[in-house]
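Trying the structure run again after the queue cleared.
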Amino acid sequence: MTEEDFNNLIDQHLETWQRTVIRITNNADDANEAVQQALIAAWEKRHSFGFRARAASWVCRIAINRAYNIIRKRRRDAERENAYAQEDCVHEPQENVLDKLQRALELLPEPYRETVAVAIANNLSAEKCIRILNCRPGTFYWRMQQAKIRLKKIMEDL
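Done. Tokens:
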């Protein structure tokens, strides 16, 4: 892959990658960081790209993985902070439905959150989502169904 090919790839798909990753991280700065890390990694590994998948899907997968790394780091940091926090804390007022949904999405296991993020954030057809996620149609539909079931349960528990 030449530098020109890589730049064209970025021009064509950057917004899609950013929308996908922002739905996973729920934070624009973290999403931009994940996409930047993915682009650097893809450029450095471009010679090992085997063309088994489309280059755009390959970079998207790297960005998604980087987003999960950022989320895991954020959770570890939050757990450390909570360990030091006082037990007598002031509770925030009742959350609105969108805040509750956002929290529920964060609690979904990675494969379901990723599937929902790719499908909804980009308003893509199932066929395009399947290519980006590099999975079979049955797996995609099963993950979406499981995500709906789990989201409903998490929302009830929040």
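Residues 102 and 123 are 18 Å apart (CA to CA). Worth checking whether this holds up in the mutant runs.
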